[in-house]
Design a protein that fits this description.
Layout lengths: L1 H20 L4 H23 L5 H13 L1 H7 L2 H18 L2 H17 L3 H18 L2 H17 L3 H18 L4 H16 L1
Length: about 200
């Protein structure tokens, strides 16, 4: 019964997240639906943390990624970090390298927003290594950009530019709409580096 409850509300959360990505008038409805599902998702998360079976681990690992946008809007980093750390532990127990990299990549900005540069950088480095190892070019590019931003904040502009270039090259190779915007941002870093 509780497993079905968890699956049902994860599906409801996923649908709200998907609705949010449509933008426009759908955003308010998506957040209303997420807010209605959230207490049930929290209850499922609390209960499933106490279980050790593969289905519970799968739910815990999948959960943050399936509600990523709505979760970002509704939870501050301090409340989101425990969810992501639990998801990371579950992904590691399952041997799910893709989700492991995703959770590490999402933990980086959360740690950074709390001023924990060391943990943020470490999370991004681990995510980048995993995405390279599994051949996830998109994930590698995003992780490299985020790690580059962290190095920029720490004053290591040479390393920042090198990493940020990976995303710009990837975006250009697939014709991504943000390629030139990100290239301009990269050029700012290079100018500061060379000044």
């Amino acid at each position: 019964m509780r497993t079905r409850h968890a699956a049902h509300y994860l599906s409801a959360g996923r649908e709200a997240n998907s609705l949010y990505t449509q933008g426009g008038d759908q955003i308010a409805e998506a957040l209303r639906r997420f807010d209605a599902a959230w207490p049930h998702l929290q209850a499922a998360w609390e209960w499933l943390k106490t279980q050790g079976d593969e289905a519970a681990l799968r739910w815990l690992s999948d959960f943050p990624g399936q509600v990523v946008y709505t979760l970002d809007l509704r939870l501050p980093p301090r409340r989101k970090i425990p969810l992501l750390e639990t998801a990371l532990a579950a992904a590691r127990r399952l041997g799910d390298r893709r989700n492991e990299g995703t959770h590490l990549g999402n933990l980086g900005p959360a740690y950074w927003s709390l001023g924990d540069a060391a943990r943020a950088t470490g999370s991004h480095e681990q995510a980048l290594a995993i995405d390279r190892a599994i051949g996830d070019r998109r994930g590698e590019a995003i992780d490299a950009w985020n790690l580059g931003l962290a190095y920029e904040e720490q004053g290591d502009l040479a390393h920042a530019a090198e990493l940020m270039q990976i995303l710009v090259d990837f975006e250009r190779s697939i014709g991504h709409a943000d390629a030139e915007k990100d290239a301009r941002r990269l050029e700012e870093v290079k100018r500061k580096r060379d000044a």
